Amino acid sequence: MALEVAQLGQPILRQVTRKVGPEEIQAEEFQAFLDQMRETMRAEGGVGLAAPQVFDDRRVFLAAILPPARRGEPPEVECFINPRLSDLSEEKKKAWEGCLSFLELLVLVPRHARLRVDYLDRTGTPRALELAGFPARVIQHENDHLDGILTIDRAESTRDIIKASEYEDVFGDKSKDDRDGDPDADD
Ligand code: NI
């Protein structure tokens, strides 16, 4: 069952989430919740989804950023429980980001080009990934959701916020080279 996605203005999107206890991870309720998040993400066509976006205050997000098992297939979805970012590169890059909580807007957001993320997967196993480019961007976007931070807070100027419907009209094909700037990649 897909869950309702909280839209901009809902207070839950501004709350700081709480850590998931190790004993909670194996619980049937939590595992079912992760499945529902996954289904919601697929139904909405997002590359990431954080718990507050489905009215939940736990520190977890999903992101479709793992290399696919077979070539040509879409990226695998990973669960990031209690994630912690480190080794953030000094270098930052700007790209347009969408968000399932306000599909109407695109925001030009500067993000660290590279980072490391430590987290627990859905079995509770500690894992770490070193990421760059688009996957690193998605992780920063979703991790922000866990702290009540949205892309509009990260814009360097209010001029870096546009209506998604105008993207093609304004930028045409110019941005097609920039994979990070893919406005279809909502998270
Ligand atoms: Ni988002």
In whole angstroms, the N-to-C terminal distance is 19 Å
| Global geometry | globular
Residue stretches low in confidence (pLDDT < 50, at least 5 long) are 176-181
| Order of helix and strand elements from N to C terminus | HHEEEEEEEHHEH
* Total beta-strand segments: 8
Number of helices: 5
Bound chemical compounds: nickel (II) ion
Q: Helicity range of the residues? A: 10-25%
User: What value does the average pLDDT take?
Assistant: 93
Main β-sheet: number of strands, strand sense, barrel status?
5 strands, antiparallel
Radius of gyration: 16 Å
Structural class: alpha+beta
The strands making up the biggest β-sheet line up spatially as 1-2-3-6-7
Describe the structure in your own words.
This protein is an alpha+beta fold. It contains five helices and eight strands, in the order ααβββββββααβα. The strands form two sheets. It has a five-stranded antiparallel sheet with strand order 1-2-3-6-7, sandwiched between helices. The model is unreliable at 176-181 (pLDDT under 50).
For this entry, give a set of tags.
alpha+beta, 187 residues, five-stranded antiparallel sheet, three-stranded antiparallel sheet, binds nickel (II) ion
